[in-house]
Design goal:
It is a single chain. The protein is α+β, with helices and mostly antiparallel strands. It folds into 2 domains: 2-62 and 73-124, no CATH class; 137-230, no CATH class. It has 10 helices and 5 strands. The longest helix has 25 residues, at 38-62. 21% of the residues are buried.
Length: 235
């Protein structure tokens, strides 16, 4: 692994970038950030980097020459940084504004980098499936019924500050399960644990089955297609 990391650093040196950037080092060394190992990142740099450089040069050659060769603004991000920004964006859905802060560039630079690198990754097979967009609980039930997949329903609570004294619904936030002030959401996933839908947060004093009725889950299951749903005793 250390050899792969060194290969990445050599690529950075060869392409005129300062080694030791804290942001870059943190992204490369921690697999949780990109979901990829150092070795895989090194392979992407070696395979996708030349393709990006080739297409970049082709774009420059296709434009009418208005300046002397070598003139004009230089790239603020070398390819490896463009690749890392794109990987983080795809893995976590991080906004371009946040990535711009991380890399110390303008938001438009990140947007341009992602638009250039993402198609190259897709050609290699690294892409996010467009799949279906499920916006409501009713659409989730219809999707599970049509696909024949098993759904999993459960509630999750997040602790919050105790509402101000004198608030009439103050006690509604006390969770009967955890005995603390919290808000609750109902989450529906498929059998592989991928989140299909998450409800808006509501006071945690509501029982799981009551919460499901309020959200319309019971009616959707009664009137909709045959669906297999796994849930705990609270439902």
């Amino acid at each position: 692994m250390h050899g792969k990391r060194w290969d990445v650093e050599l690529w950075i040196v060869d392409h005129g970038c300062v080694v030791g950037n804290v942001t870059r080092a943190g992204i490369i060394s921690d697999r949780r950030v990109t979901g990829l190992s150092v070795g895989v990142i090194a392979e992407l740099v070696a395979e996708v980097g030349p393709l990006w450089h080739e297409r970049h040069q082709a774009r420059l050659a296709s434009r009418p020459q208005k300046r002397a060769v070598g003139a004009g603004a230089k790239h603020q991000l070398v390819f490896v940084d463009r690749l890392l920004a794109t990987l983080v964006h795809l893995h976590h859905g991080v906004t371009h504004d946040v990535l711009a802060c991380w890399f110390g560039v303008d938001r438009s630079t990140i947007t341009r980098a992602v638009s250039e690198v993402r198609p190259l990754l897709a050609e290699r097979g690294c892409t996010v499936s467009p799949d279906v967009r499920l916006r409501t609980l009713a659409e989730v039930i219809d999707h599970l019924g049509a696909s024949g997949k098993t759904g999993i329903v459960d509630g999750t609570e997040v602790r919050v500050r105790r509402p101000a004294a004198g608030r009439k619904d103050r006690d509604k936030f006390i969770s009967g399960k955890n005995k603390q002030n919290a808000v609750k959401s109902m989450v529906v996933t498929d059998g592989e644990g991928r989140v299909l839908w998450c409800s808006p947060a509501s006071p945690a004093s509501c029982a799981d089955i009551t919460h499901a009725r309020q959200l319309g889950l019971v009616n959707f299951l009664a009137d909709g297609p045959a669906v297999e749903i796994l849930a705990d005793a609270g439902y």
